[in-house]
Amino acid sequence: MTAPLPPERALERLEALCSRSEHCSSELIAKMRTWKLSPDDIEAVIYSLRRRRFVDDSRFARAFVRDKYRFNRWGRIKIRMELSAKKISAELIDEAMEEIDENIYQERLESLLASKIKSIHDDDPRIRRQKILRAAVSRGYEVGLAAQRLTAIMKGENNQE
């Protein structure tokens, strides 16, 4: 059995970690629990990190939304679920979701749908539509919005023929 990490050493490690990338409080608390720090020590270390702005859940949430929306091309639902799983408050999530530009969001959804239209081939148009929508929903896009955009795209294709 390993000895608990001294709080001073834990603080040093977490400062270095937070200097390299954004982390939320819940991630750091979980890490300190694996290091067997006492609840009082965990609270003191988190307080110190917050006070000196090494950790800021609001900043983390905004960065998370930007990254997942831009690079992973996730939809709002998946982003919200992941932030909730990281114990970010609903208020901070709502604020962070404002990072999403609605026009770009819809363009990315349409791009995803268009690529799935090209890659999914099924003789039954209903099954094909379900598969395309399932791909958008699995990325976290809203069902209604995805269905609306898919209908518009498919109408546009039919008008071009």
Report what the structure shows.
- With 161 residues, the protein is mainly alpha-helical.
- It has three domains: 7-51, no CATH class; 57-97; 102-160.
- It contains nine helices and no strands.
- Helix 2 packs antiparallel against helix 3 (39-51) and helix 4 crosses helix 6 (90-97).
- The chain is elongated, with a radius of gyration of 21 Å.
Give me a quick take on this structure.
This protein is mainly α. Helix content is 74%, strand content 0%.
The rounded distance between the terminal residues' Cα atoms is 71 Å
Strand content: under 5%
Classify the oligomer: single chain
**Secondary-structure-derived class:** mainly alpha
Query: Segments where pLDDT lies below 50 for 5+ residues?
Result: none
Total number of domains: 3
Overall helicity:
over 70%
* Anisotropy-based shape: elongated
| Radius of gyration over all CA atoms, rounded | 21 Å
Number of helices: 9
Average pLDDT, rounded to a whole number, is 93
Largest sheet: none
How many runs of DSSP E, i.e. beta strands?
A: 0
Order of helical and strand elements = HHHHHHHHH
